[in-house]
Amino acid sequence: MEYENVKEALKDAIEIAESKEVITWDIDTNSRPATTEEVQEMIRERLYTGA
User: Fold this and answer.
1) pLDDT of 14 higher than 90
2) Which of 6, 17, 18, 50 has the fewest CB atoms lying closer than 10 Å?
3) How many CA atoms lie within 13 A of 48 on its CB side?
């Protein structure tokens, strides 16, 4: 995902960080709660692509 500016990337990252539960999918496309490490990676991806 690409962002037009850093503000959009930060907004998206904050929404992830403030979520009560973040869902992810495994290889078999089964949904499950994301681990702390997965949530951190999601946030990193948004911040790196928004910079």
Assistant:
1) yes
2) 18
3) 6
